[in-house]
Known about the structure:
Layout: H1 2-14, E1 22-27, H2 36-45, E2 49-54, H3 64-71, H4 90-96, E3 99-105, H5 107-115, H6 121-128, E4 133-137, H7 141-145, H8 147-158, E5 162-163, E6 167-170, E7 176-180, H9 184-205, E8 224-229, E9 234-237, E10 240-242, H10 249-260, E11 264-269, E12 281-284, H11 288-299, E13 304-307, E14 314-316, E15 335-337, H12 341-348, E16 354-361, H13 365-375, E17 380-385, E18 397-398, E19 401-404, E20 407-410, E21 414-415, H14 416-430
Parallel strand pairs: 1-2, 1-3, 3-4, 4-5, 8-11, 8-13, 11-12, 13-16, 16-17
Antiparallel strand pairs: 6-7, 9-10, 14-15, 17-19, 18-21, 19-20
Helix pairs in contact: 2-3, 2-9, 4-6, 5-8, 10-14
Amino acid sequence: MKLTGILMHLQAKNNSMLKGKKIVLGITGSIAAYKSCLIIRGLIKRGAEVQVVITPAGKEFITPITLSALTHKPVISEFFSQRDGTWHSHVDLGLWADAMLIAPCTASSLGKMANGIADNMLITTYLSMKAPVFIAPAMDLDMYRHQSTQHNLDLLRSYGNHIIEPESGFLASGLEGKGRMEEPEVIVDTLNKFFSEQSSQKSFGNQTSSSCGEKPGGELTGKRILITAGPTYERIDPVRFIGNYSSGKMGFDLAEECRRRGAEVTLIAGPVALECSPVIKRIDVASCAEMYDAAVKAFADSDAAILSAAVADFAAEYVSPTKIKRGPDGLTLKLKPTHDIASSLGKMKKPNQKLVAFALETNDEENNAKGKLERKNADFIVLNSTRIPGTTFGSDDNKIKIISRNGSHEYDKKPKTEVAVDIINELEKIL
């Protein structure tokens, strides 16, 4: 078995989809620039031709001589190569490349790319690029989490760029968290996978009409997906409410993943501090009743619904029109059940529609999730638990188990962006 595995690995390397591909590698001013050498080596080993474009700050971390020795090409950094009128054409690079990879990409370069600030050779090359662009951010955890950075990433995604999410781990600052550039071998594999899928889609397009019912590359083009995300707030009085700790991150990541696969996405969002791509149809709501009305209306024309929102199960029977004052006798609230959105959509569901529900449990997790699967008439349940540290509410990571009538599959703890990929892969199988 070991010998077979080695042979398969070698065969995969020999059948690299990167063979003959022209890759522009952009390097910015990050300590992770040293990893670009490993990226170059990985690309060249798989048969790619690499041209490096580096920012002035990038040269402070790694020398052009080192990069040139690895690529066997002069490194491009400045617009003008000499004082004799010769210059480097960013337009020619944009036409030459089969793909552009920017790794590492700093917060500064992300901002310039998102807003078209063409003040160096790398950014002008990016703005001229005709080929797909892959971006591997690298920065400290607080910079990565900052709203401006996340906004810039969302903008770049909406432009069609491919974001290679950073890892969580030990950072150059001495802190630990998300922001470390993805490992070079994973980055190279990402490009290889892209060209492999692209090749499969081309092959699909050349097939006979008997295969026209199949979906090329597992894409969701032409599908309409409804997603709910975030909490709901149920008012007690003008200033207080019943709510929960949901950040909406999981639902927003699901929406972006569906968008990347070509789906027409309607995102019904509770009160959250998140932004989504402009092409996503976003409906902002506050209460369960508002989310229910919007979901019922949107589901009628949807191919699938993913109900990731943490909807309040109870609301105040009486909402005070004025602020309730503190008193010596305390406060007693009488609560009433809210609308069961999952159950309602399950009853509405037509044979050609799919329903994905979420189950957040604190005990007897799997049995509770299986019960919900049947009661809600869902096609599968995404189970997560509050008992796993560093997951669910407010976290960038999650650990899930997908439960259907055909069985269950448990996944490792990973960033919610990657969890979204796992969930949509499962949805694709049944659409």
